Amino acid sequence: MFAPIISALRLSPIQVMAERTRQAIQQGHSVIDMTLGEPDFPTPQHIGEAAIRAIRDGETRYTPINGSTRLREAIVAKFRRDNGIDCSIAEISVGCGGKQVIYQAFLATLNPGDEVIMPAPYWASYSDIVAMNGGVLRPIMTSPQRGYALSAADLAAAIGPRTKWLVLNSPSNPSGTAYDRAQLAEFAQVIRQSPHRDFFILVDDIYEHILYDGRAFHTLAQVAPDLADRILTVNGVSKAYAMTGWRLGYACGPRHLIEAMTKLQMQINSHTSSISQAAAVAALEGPQDEVRRRCQAFQRRRDFLHDALSGIAGLHTPRPEGAFYLFPDVRACLGRQAPGGERIADDVALAAYLLRAGVAVVPGSGFGMPGFLRLSYATSDENLRIAAERMAYALGNLT
């Protein structure tokens, strides 16, 4: 009755744990939710006011498929101002979140058996979007000892004759790993020297503005403009501006790719909400001081939770450089027994055990790294304190 992809497609591990968390809370359990990658701050006031004005001014009709001219001009200006990328509005794609932009890019380009390479751990949705479009995911394994960073040598070894896309996400979900200019320059040199040249590079910069310790943000098209005709730079307003529900992502890339993606979007959802587009203009063109203030808050939370988890036996937690996640190695906790006698066989079982202890996290197997956990610290300082205490107690009771 259904297409084969339905039986093959897994449920999002993030959404599965988020739903279990909601159910536990509805049943009266006290749970600190660290599952969703969603800022706990409200959308800045000036952005909401821009949306209200758009409604009052009647900006409620269809826009061009790729977004209003006004929004695409704001995106072009943002890429030039923040990233040193020169592009035109014809090279801009706007969709209902970055996920739609990525989906359309893969749908437009992947043939059955084409390979998509990316460092693991990776955002869970990448693998499913690849599979939905007939591609084959080829993860490039990284290690916590190297801070989950991809090396140029490993990248060179991973590129092959069937490679159609390389995906780079920096700062990374779920690891928080961020690449500096020198590292990106090394990747660019690998790409230039590879005998396999018929592939695109998807650069996911959605966490661009959540970067710590005074690091400067860099992106591949900025570092290697000679590769721009192969790079799709994806971004959005969800994370930096706390606009997850507004559903607006965007990208710049080679015109022929953008045109193919637009042709698909024409038959998928036409365009994202005109009101969200007006709000996104205000986000990109308006004051950025609130974005910087919130980044400081996330850094403070990172420092607290990282220090707290570092004191728990059995966890090895690299210090993230951006985004708002910790990705501890919990393999030392596996194979042990919970107080009730249950054996903690894997990271899924450990996440279930921690949920019963009042802390909701996501198993690392959903991100291509079994034996790890993802914790979102986009929650209050008090919640983080309680979560750390509960985790220390629960993990300390494993035998």
Outline the structure in words:
Helix content is 41%, strand content 13%. The chain contains 14 helices and 12 strands. The chain has a 7-stranded mixed beta sheet, with helices on both faces. β5, α8 and β6 form a beta-alpha-beta unit. α4 runs parallel beside α11, α5 packs parallel to α6 and α12 runs parallel beside α14.
Helix content: 40-55%
| Average pLDDT rating | 96
The H-and-E topology, N to C, reads as HHEHHEHEHEHEHEHEEHHHEHEEEH
Placed side by side, the strands forming the largest sheet appear as: 2-8-7-6-5-3-4
Overall morphology: globular
Strand content: 5-15%
Radius of gyration: 21 Å
Largest sheet: 7 strands, mixed
Number of strands: 12
The stretches of 5 or more residues where confidence is low (pLDDT under 50) are none
Protein structure class: alpha/beta
What's the tally of helices? 14
- Intertermini distance: 48 Å
Strand-helix topology:
Layout: H1 4-8, H2 13-26, E1 32-33, H3 45-56, H4 69-83, E2 92-95, H5 98-109, E3 115-120, H6 124-132, E4 136-141, H7 152-158, E5 163-169, H8 181-193, E6 200-204, H9 220-223, E7 231-236, E8 249-252, H10 255-268, H11 274-285, H12 289-310, E9 325-326, H13 347-356, E10 359-360, E11 362-363, E12 373-376, H14 381-396
Helix pairs in contact: 3-11, 4-11, 5-6, 5-10, 7-8, 12-14
